Amino acid sequence: MLKRFTVKNFKNFKDSISIDFENIAGYQFSTDCIVDGLIGKMLIYGRNATGKTNLGKAIADIRFTLFGGLVKTGSFLNVDSQEESAAFSYVFQFGDKELTYRYARYSEREMREEELLIDGQTIFRCDFFNEEYNFDNLKYIGAETANTERYLQNSLDEDDMEETLGPRLPFLRWLTSNVAFGNDSPVIRLSDYAEKMLFITVGSVTAFRYRRINDRFFEALENEGNLKGLEEFLNAMGVECKLVLMKLPDGRKELYFAHETKLLPFYESASSGTLALVDLYRIILRAGSASFLYLDEFDAFYHYEMAETVIQFFKKKYPGCQMIITTHNTNLMTNRLLRPDCLFILSRTGTLTALCNATMRELREGHNLEKMYISGEFEKYE
Fold it and tell me: What is the pLDDT of residues 64-75, one digit of tens each?
């Protein structure tokens, strides 16, 4: 699991910002928010433009680093910083092994440096800027036979500058693709964890977006259990309905609300809130095997009671999945759902503070956290 994350000079985070999942306060309520001694469920509050979305993108950057994908758009480095690269650091705990993977990059495509440590021991280090490399300790992960000369030749070949992977292929990505590690290898466990990290902005959903993705989604709904699951999920969230998936004469599939005498096309009839719930259900289908889930603006279209029901649903259905949820909804700032060491405020200046550390009071289960927030108790940390 992820123990600590730090990023610096990425988008609006000029200075370092860290999340320490080990920093728990020992509360005896809402214990289902803690998994193996680490924060498993976290809620982040922040005013507009504080960087909640960018924080999720920063955490998910390791997945792009290790597995590639479409190049993201928008600025990468902080526009006010004089530094030329953004720095990322991840600390994981897998069994009795602590892995630290850190790297710096000039852009979405180009690495500056990269390093892997296990229990404090450097396994490899690549300084691409100065062209200095240390692969002396690959034997500690059973990779002493890796042909590092071939890696250097291929990844730094000027002829590959225009390739999708970029001129400096991350060594860890190359290593996991070219060495036969056992399934219990800490390197493979890190790779598996990163591959299953999901970053999803739920609040930005539109009907057009659904039209673009519905083919894959409908394929999943052809499984009767998944279709029934969607129907039950919507009913549990207060949207009483019966659903039917039909194949049209031209071969396309369409989802309908089933009424007594007729069928209504789902995507033409559903409200924005219902569409957001369906998008959330798509996430649920994917989250079954997720290691880490960052849900941004998950409740943008929900009534506060429904938002609370959604959190309870995720806590119960995916107890082992680490999850960060961002919200503006102060009704969710309650010890019924989480606890003061799992509720955070992201400030305009790029600091992240748990509620238990944002007041001189000793917060207890009976405290009304929302009332304290509205009255300005934590205003210093916004």
Answer: 999 987 656 578
Q: pLDDT tens-digit profile of 32-86?
A: 999 999 999 999 998 888 999 999 999 999 999 999 876 565 789 999 999 999 9
pLDDT tier at 282, thresholds 50, 70, 90: confident
Strand order in the sheet with 292-296: 197-201, 292-296, 322-327, 41-46, 343-346, 352-354
The region, left, alpha or beta by phi > 0 then psi within -120 to 50, assigned to residue 68 is left
**Rounded distance between C-alpha atoms, residue 128 and residue 132, angstroms:** 7
Looking up tokens 């606890």 gives 339
**If we measure between CA atoms, which residue out of 306, 301, 231 comes closest to residue 266?**
231
Q: Which amino acid does the sequence have at 170?
A: P
Cα three-residue angle 320-324-327, rounded to 5 degrees? 140
Question: The whole model's pTM is what?
Answer: 0.89
CA separation for the pair 186, 99 (Å, rounded): 8
Backbone angles phi, psi at 191, to 5 degrees: -60, -45
Q: Which residues contact 47 (CB under 8 A, 6 or more apart)?
A: 328, 348, 382
User: Residue 53: left (phi > 0), alpha (psi -120 to 50), or beta?
Assistant: alpha
pLDDT at 213: 58
Angle of helix 304-317 relative to helix 272-287, nearest 10 degrees, comes to 10
Core vs surface per residue 88-108: b (16+ CB within 10 A) or e: bbbbbbbeeebbbbbbbbbeb
Find tokens 């999720």 and name the residue. Answer: 56
Residues near 226 by beta carbon (within 8 Å), at least 6 away in sequence: 220, 285
Cα–Cα nearest to 111, from 79, 136, 133, 142: 133
Residue 48 to residues 41, 256, 270, 310, 340: CA-CA distances in angstroms? Answer: 22, 36, 28, 22, 22
